[in-house]
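A common beginner's mistake is to predict each chain separately and then try to dock the pieces by hand. The better habit, illustrated here, is to supply every component at once so that their relative placement is modeled jointly.
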Amino acid sequence: MSVLPFPSFLDDIKEKGLKRAVFEGVNEVVERLTAGMNLQDIREALRGEAPTRKPNPRLQPHADGFWLHMRPSYFHKSVTGVYPEFRLGWLSTYFVFFETITGIFLMVFYTPSPDVAYANMLAIMSNVPLGQFVRDLHRLGAEAMVLIVTLHMLRTFFTASYKKPRQFTWATGVILVFLTYFLSFSGYLLPWDQLALWAVTIGASMFEATPPEIVGTNLNLLLRGGPEMGANGLLRFYLLHVLAVPALLFVFTGVHYYKVIVHGHSLPPKEENIGEDTAKRVPLDKRVYFIPDILTSEIMWIGVTTLILVILVTWFFHAPLESHADPQITPLGTTAPWYFLWIQGALKLGDKVLWGIIFPTVYVGFLLVWPYIDTAPSRRWAHRRLQMTIGFLIMSFTVVLSYMGLAEFGVVNSADITVMHHMTMEPAHNHMGTLRPIPFEQLQAGMYTTREFAVEDAAEAQSAVAAFNAELELPPPWLQGQADAQPVGEMVLAYLDTQHLPLTRLNFTTVPSASPELREVVEEFEHELELKETELHNAWGVVIITDVQENLKRIDVMILWEDVVIENGKVVFDAEGEPVLNRDENGNPIIRMNSQHIYIHRDSQYFAAPGA
Amino acid sequence: MASVVSAENQASAVAREKAAPSVVVATPNRREFLYYIWGASLALLLGEASAGLIWFALPRFKEGTFGGTFVMTGDKVPAAGSGPTRVPEGRFWMSNVQDEGFVVLYGVCTHLGCLPNWVDTNFRFECPCHGSKYEVNGKYIEGPAPRSLDRFETTLVFADGTQVVQNANGDPIPLEGRTVSEIRINTGKRIRRAGKV
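With all components supplied together, the output reads:
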């Protein structure tokens, strides 16, 4: 009786009518897709009713389906709340996938070659729809992932969930933390800006310090692909970042999660008898089934996390991009990201083999074997005072080392460089030079001086600048009266010429009122000079803005001061506590000048630091 | 299949077990032995493959691709006692050290590879990465660097035609008032200073 030579859907329509046949067809498809739950089962679950079919259809997807085969079909009630796990394990897994997906999208527009990598970054940030959005998500996601997995590790430590039989789970977790950090490190190089090049040069040099020497040298060569970090190194780090380390990460995540399921989520310490592990034996009344409660809870958590990330990236956080990698210049203030600051701090202590290789190895090794050291049976906080103390001590130690890793610590500079650096520095993690975020229109071409702000009364600014102009036409005070003494202004012009800024004459004005942010920066410049009065004696500073091309401006920052005697980097004081001036053979003070310059394009994107 | 412990020995084995717990394992039979040999050959294969892969991944470059010999005219010699002159293409600095002479320093910090800046106010090199500091002749002052700055072998050709090659220690070449007509810097030959001298 059928149209086709075999029984088919059309027969059903003839038998039961179209509506019923379609409904039953859809029902069957749904049951196959979900590996066991038809429409009524789903509705029952969503309504919070008990299942009517036997066996419980909500367990079928776990038994028959691939996606849920490793997920437990029920959880113990005590681990479903925020405490004790804070869902950190689930969030860590989510971030693996989040980073993979945002990373794959970025791969569409990125090529790992020094010739084009930086241009690709600029294109992603300005020419690809939502490009900046995806890049910021990837960068912020990376930082969030490092934070979340570290918190996950801390949580596992404090609830002593690493104890028997979960020691191996903890060990695989430490390996995962290490892989996460390395993923972050390898991704760092890819934008090929100054921060990328120099942070990774330092990192690869650390590997070079591995003893014995033949291992270290070859490890360094394998990473760099050449004597210096260049095209080969970029390609190798790219392959590590997108293929090798993610593959390892997926494998170890599988191993780690499987062990978690085999042993079950450990219960809050006070719910178990000491020394017992009852996580796998969940009484019937304590079961919370995966479908629908845990599933919906997990989706909600990752939904909220994504929402938070999107909000942060839309309004508060933007991944920085410094200037193009320059193998000739190491910028001041190259910092590691916050989670590597502890290594950078340790490196300042001395020998790079000891502090760069041996110390981190011992640190990570200690973490790895900790469950085999701490075999005390009780997981309760009251019985673990010693272990918690050790944990807090290690955390404090890491924080102190991280502080030492900051750019300001231990890396001293002469006062002039410090002041100028504060104004010109490239965008780093949370700050940049004060000149950079000034809106392009406010950078009006002209010459501005800190003398404008050296007077108490704002009304005197004009006359202060006029007096400054007049002062520049004369030689320095101790040379006035001499026949062929060179005016200060000429010295300045000659110096600026050596910095490739040829000007015909100097004419300083007050900062235009249409440039309030520029005015703020120059005023701050004056304050900084006042603070550094001892080293920069009788100093004044200038900011000179020139139009180089139609959409490109050059900003020169210059300081002129009288030289002070410095020994071992410290100012020498006389009996009255005044700095001793450096004097030439005639007993006159010596004038010193120093300057830096930066270029700002109309499309340069400098985002004000969060909170600024 | 033949059991590892044959029937006759079973009783005595059990007795031995009860008396003093110990493991009794017979010598391997042919099958087991051949498996061991095969396993060893697989291990050898894996070892060779790993070594081969590492050899594959090591980069190829000509030693001395970096740099070669730089020849500069004598007027580039900085004044005695002043700051050094930077040559970015060669990544080195030329110093004329008061009372010591002329020396060429490799400008890469011996700590972790950053490029120290010359800070005129403090009259020393200061590395921006971890704060290592060196004097104008490259001598280590303080910081996490393990040794002083490396030097490049230099040959000075003077106006009167004589040549002086730097000694193996890399000590500065005294100028003794002579005019330099040419400076030859061999960046293929890097002299490592022993320690912090």
